[in-house]
Amino acid sequence: MKKVLLVAFFSLSFLFGFGQNVPNPGFEAWIDYGGYEDPKNWNSPNEVTSGLGVFTVSKSTDTYSGNYSVRMESKNILGGLFKVPGTVTLGEFVIDINNQTAVIEGGIPFDHRPDKLQGFYKYFPGQGDFMQAFVFLYKRNPDTGQRDTIGTGYYSYADTVDVWSPFETDITYSSAEEPDSLNIIIMASDIFNAVQGSTLLVDSLMFEYATGVEEVVQDNQVRAFPNPCNQQITFEVPEDWENSNASIFNSTGQLMFTEAVRSRQFALTTDSYPDGVYFYHIKSGSEMKSGTFIVLH
Predict the structure, then answer these.
(1) HEC letters along 64-80
(2) Which pairing describes strands 87-89 and 181-187: parallel, antiparallel, or unpaired?
(3) Which of 102, 232, 255, 291 has the highest CB neighbour number within 10 Å of its CB?
(4) Using alpha carbons only, how large is the chain's radius of gyration in Å?
(5) CATH no. for residue 228?
(6) Which domain holds residue 85?
(7) Do residues 156 and 220 lie in contact, with contact meaning Cβ atoms separated by under 8 Å?
């Protein structure tokens, strides 16, 4: 059976120091590592796959603005044994070929509370595939010595976008504290079933900061409330989405729940879910809506 090379990501270490903006947001600066190039401040699977003559991330002159954008293309390696989503991240890839797993570790020091991540993209998906963008803001917990996720953002799209178009994801916070670190992960594919050839171009990233806004409501046509939740969370889908399918994943990519949806509202019991960030995918036909919620007991 084919294995998905990327299966978990989200432990944190400090790599770079930046202020309130996305580093190298237009992907104008690139570093030549000898056998491959990566955008400055960003990492990709190229460090490992370039040894096989495979490059999932490259510089593109097809841009929204400036001279370059980043081009991510999902590819199979080793005769199709591994599926590698085209991916860039502010973290670092740790890939174990022998165990057929990989994690993304790392991020950057960051102490602001942005409300949105915005950017421009083109997307050419393979059959059934979809692109994804994740934002994670962390804060060290002095009691546990671990880093808690206190802010998340998530965007996905499954259809072709053949002209430069804007995207944005709202960032939802579970704490009033200031974060101390940040990771952004952008992928050309479904992490669980990357389709070879799915291609994503991204340019002109930026954070948006609102003044005097207490809460940002996700405008993705699916309501998830209360968020954060404790014992239960309720989802409300659009009127024409009564016949859809819902899936819930934890932050390591483990499928926690999947079920057919037959009404506009349905409830998910979360009393057995560990505290943390979870992702929902709700699919109706060829359309899909995605987002995040937080469980806090």
Answers:
(1) CCCCCEEEEECEEECCC
(2) antiparallel
(3) 291
(4) 18
(5) 2.60.40.2470
(6) 3-209
(7) no
